[in-house]
Amino acid sequence: MTYEQILKKLKSMTNEKNRAGMSRFGIETSKAYGISIYDLRKLAKEIPKDHDLALKLWESDIHEARHLASQIDEPGKVTEDQIEKWVKDFNSWDICDQVCDNLFMHTRFAYPKIYEWAEREEEFVKRASFALIACLSWHDKNATDQDFIRMFPLIKKASTDERNFVRKAVNWALRNIGKRNLNLNKEAVKLARELEKMDSKSARWIAKDAIRELTSEKMQERLKTKDKGK
To answer: Which domain holds residue 34?
Structure first.
């Protein structure tokens, strides 16, 4: 499919009901067609990987085209300049999370950018740091426990950020680290106990939510079974 054919196809898939629903969930929809993630993933499978096409789709500034761009791009061809440009363009939590999961975490820049972006003030740039932690802790089978424990100071520092889209990503990162194995579960709960004592409403919310999930009987049994299976 060509660039023009893709844009025409996306427009034909417009769903105003979904668009309204997206808006209610805090997604920026001023340039969106209301196409579901499921349908976008299905469409992406029909388009061969193409770095140049991905760049062009991103520049269209259409919400769903940007989702597609992250799915059809080639990680090995992604440059640091591209990553920095795209992250600055983030204007919605779903674009941030999907691009991190579909593309950024597969590039050689993933781990360095976690540390860089955690110190940035832009809301979705900072969110991207913790979205990457969440994605990598779930998918990177080659990472060590220490790779994630080294990120705990980033989580602790950002836990006091009261902005909704930041604190939810920090919470997501902490919970995903704690789901990786029993050792990291223990370390993540320990960190959450520290956050629980902080003079910050955001930090206490992050802690309470993480502790509830990570210490649950269901989670403990799942991790014990997972570790035994290694």
So the answer is: 1-79
Same domain, residue pair 171 and 71: no
Last residue of a domain, one of 24, 58, 79: 79
Q: What total of structural domains would you count in the chain? A: 2
H runs (alpha helix) in the chain: 3-12, 16-24, 37-44, 51-59, 63-72, 80-89, 93-102, 110-117, 123-139, 145-149, 152-158, 164-178, 182-196, 201-214, 217-228
Among 41, 62, 79, residue at a domain's last position: 79
Per-residue pLDDT of the chain (230 residues; tens, 9 = 90+): 899 999 999 999 999 999 999 999 889 999 999 999 999 999 999 999 999 999 999 999 999 999 999 999 999 999 999 999 999 999 999 999 999 999 999 999 999 999 999 999 999 999 999 999 999 999 999 999 999 999 999 999 999 999 999 999 999 999 999 999 999 999 999 999 999 999 999 999 999 999 999 999 999 999 999 887 76
pTM above 0.90, yes or no: yes
Residues 49 and 117 in one domain: no
Say yes or no: 41 and 125 in one domain.
no
Query: Residues 120, 174: one domain?
Result: yes
Q: Greatest CA span in the chain, whole angstroms?
A: 55
